[in-house]
Each structure stands twice: as C-alpha cells, then as structure tokens.
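Tokens for chain A. Residues wanted.
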C-alpha cells in the first residue's frame, strides 16, 4: 500500500494552510492510498475533516515514503531516507536554509521543491503566486490608508482591512471596490494627487496584485507617459502603471540594445533605471523575481536622494517578492503576519518594525498567502493533487536516471538520496561554509 503523509506546519503558528485538502485526499484514500496527517490546532481545516476523508492522525510519519509540507522543515525533523516535498527556499543559496539543506544531504533524504515544478518553458505548475499578489496588494492598500491617517489625512483607504481580517477574498475585494467608489465620489485627498500605483512584473503574483488594484477602477498609464508626466493630477483619477523588464533596466553603456532573453542570461550587463519613476509613484507593488545577479529595483541611495529633495510622495512599497536586501534594498527583514511592516528612514539610513514613524513604509511579509488560508489551500491542492499518485507510486530507491516520475517533478528534485542532482550541483558553493 502506498503511504503518504502531511506534516504540521511549524514555522509559524499563523501558517494555517495545507498542501492537500481533505476533499482532494478522499479520492486517493478511496483508491487504496494510506494518508497520515500530523495533528495541528492551527490549520484552517480541522483534524476531524481529514479523518472523515479517511486519513489517519498520527505524530509518527515514518511509515510514509513521501511527506508533504509547505514551508521549510526544521533540520531536526528531516526524516532520514524519506522524500520530502515543500518550498525549500534554497535554490538561490539562501544562507538561512543551508543548514536544513545540509541535513537533507547528510540524512540521505530526497528533496522535491514545489517552486521548481515547471513545464518545458520553465513555467511554474504548482504555486500560490496569485494569492501572494492578492494578499500583498490588499495589505499594501491597508498600509497606505494607515500611513495617510497618521499624517492626519482621512481617506476611504482606512476602511480596507488586512487580508487576514477579511471573511474571504471576495470580502477583501468588496472593501477595496468600495474604497475606490468613495475616493471617486469624495475626491482624492490633495496629498494623494496624483494617486499612482506601480506594479512590477507580469507573472502570477503581479496578476493577483493587479486584480485587487483593478477594483479601484484605475486609469491605465504607460511607464513612458508616467515618466513624461503625461497625465492629470486629477481630483478623482487613480492611475495604474505596470512595469516590464524593458521599463526597469537598460544595458550598461556600450552594451547591446535591450533584449529580454539576453537580459535573463546576462543581467550583469544591465543597470536599473527605475529611480526615474519613483517621484511620481504613491504606492509600489513589487512582484518580480530577483537574485543577486540582477540590478536592484529600488536602492537606499535612490530613496535618500528623493527625501533629500523633499520628494516624499512614495509612501508605501508592497514588497510582495520579499527578498531580504534584494530588489528592494531596504527590505532588511522578512516576517509572518505578526510583524508585516517596517518603516525605513532614508536620510538616517535606519529602520524599525511597525507601521508608525517617519519614512517609507514597506510590506515585508513572506507568507502572504497564509492570510487567505482556505482559498489558497483549496487552489494549491487542486494543482498539486494530480501529481500525487505518480509521486506516491515512484520507487525512490532506483538510480536518479531511472526514477519514473513526470518530467515536471523530475525537474524539481534538488536532492536525491542524499546527493544534489545534476541541475542543482551549483548549490555546493553555498554549502562549503
């Protein structure tokens, strides 16, 4: 009998999501699969719902060949020789997870990373991306309303709640939609004119963020027109600008003209030009992929220059991508829903957690979909469950070359029986320290 397990998420008690729902597990149990579920008192779906679906509650997951989770697993809880599947956050060599990766190697375990389950065009197949965008945009609009209130500026944005405080995604959308209606009816506060929301990227995260922003019924604006100032600082108009790579970077002087694939292959040959847009933005939602090879989007020096010139219109950055000191250089920390904001003071080059005080407010939440746990879990389970039978049936004792799993799953195997697979051997350089 094939046996799989679902572990309890223990990175944060505020993490309520599950990788597989009882509704999607029940057909697997009916076909003869044994499902073990570690008990939890903070999941959005209760233990009883899993048992009704035919799962067994137990703290002992060792009978399972494959253990499903979501967030990183503490190194001490890696089960030797087992196949673990979760978001490992290791593919960039993230130093804070190298200890966990070493333990996976030392224990002879196998690691499959959801982030690397991709098709032949490198498009992700198992993801929460839309929900990170939804929650990130909702929370950023909430943050903007709170920051305006601290300046003594009343606005309908104050009526928006954080995603976790809404009854559902539909409820959150309704609050944003109502805020947009009231802004158009009452007129924008003078300090918010022009009200320009910038969104970087065009992937799933960006699409989710734009879905929320569109509830405000913004006027689309091109990056070029934003740069030229070809728009009105109207009483009622809200503007949305979407930035692609061609808008955000340019080849270093003497280099070839911008070409997307060349940029992906040789990002070191490009520099950011995003600073030119900053004085005209009120809210920036950052939704792009970033690693150390790429130019930063917003630097500490760029916002220092803004503040030195008394240009303080950019009140909030929703760093939905949330790479520590990454594309937003002053995302100095990342936290869960308990500490989701920091304030960065550009002229003093210092920051503090919270949403009060002078500076640029930054959303720094790294588990944003957890604020919409039920709908996010239902979506994720639907895209994951078709892969479960083949993963559960696979013989992880054969050589990697003979492993019989679908190609997208094979691409996601970072460690196989204690060894980095060929596509991930570059991680050895990060494991030496």
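Reply:
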């Amino acid at each position: 009998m094939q046996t799989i397990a679902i572990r309890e998420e223990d990175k944060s008690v505020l993490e309520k999501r599950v990788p597989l729902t009882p509704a999607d597990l029940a057909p697997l149990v009916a076909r003869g699969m044994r499902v073990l579920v570690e008990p939890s008192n903070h999941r959005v779906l209760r233990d009883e719902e899993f048992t009704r679906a035919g799962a067994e509650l137990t703290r002992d997951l060792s009978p399972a060949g494959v253990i499903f989770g979501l967030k990183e697993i503490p190194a001490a809880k890696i089960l030797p020789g087992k196949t673990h599947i979760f978001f490992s956050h290791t593919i960039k060599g993230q130093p804070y997870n190298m200890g966990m990766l070493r333990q996976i190697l030392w224990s002879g375990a196998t690691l499959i990373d959801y982030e690397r389950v991709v098709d032949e065009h490198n498009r992700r197949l198992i993801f929460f991306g839309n929900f990170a965008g939804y929650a990130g945009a909702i929370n950023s609009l909430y943050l903007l309303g709170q920051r305006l209130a601290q300046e003594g500026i009343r606005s309908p944005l104050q009526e928006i709640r954080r995603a976790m405080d809404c009854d559902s995604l539909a409820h959150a959308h309704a609050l944003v939609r109502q805020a947009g209606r009231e802004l158009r009816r009452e007129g924008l506060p003078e300090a918010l004119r022009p009200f320009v929301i910038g969104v970087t990227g065009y992937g799933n995260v960006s699409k989710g963020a734009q879905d929320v922003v569109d509830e405000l019924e913004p006027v689309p604006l091109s990056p070029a027109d934003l740069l030229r100032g070809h728009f009105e600082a109207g009483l009622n108009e809200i503007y949305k600008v979407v930035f692609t790579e061609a808008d955000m970077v340019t080849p270093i002087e003497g280099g070839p003209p911008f070409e997307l694939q060349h940029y992906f292959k040789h990002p070191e040959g490009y520099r950011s030009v995003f600073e030119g847009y900053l004085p005209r933005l009120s809210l920036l939602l950052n939704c792009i992929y970033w690693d150390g090879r790429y130019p930063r989007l917003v630097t500490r020096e760029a916002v220092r220059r803004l503040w030195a010139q008394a240009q303080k219109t950019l009140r909030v950055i929703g760093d939905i991508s949330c790479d520590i000191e990454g594309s937003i250089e002053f995302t100095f920390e990342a936290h869960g829903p308990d500490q989701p904001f920091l304030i960065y003071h550009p002229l003093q080059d210092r920051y503090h957690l919270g949403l009060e005080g002078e500076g640029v407010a930054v959303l720094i939440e790294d588990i944003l979909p957890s604020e919409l746990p039920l709908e996010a879990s239902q979506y994720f389970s639907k895209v994951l469950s078709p892969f479960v039978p083949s993963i559960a049936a696979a013989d992880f004792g054969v050589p990697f070359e003979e492993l019989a799993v679908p190609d997208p799953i094979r691409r996601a195997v970072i460690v196989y029986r204690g060894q980095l697979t060929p596509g991930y051997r570059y991680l050895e350089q990060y494991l030496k320290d």
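The CA atoms of residues 148 and 154 lie 7 Å apart. The domain at 129-371 is CATH 3.40.50.720 (Rossmann fold).
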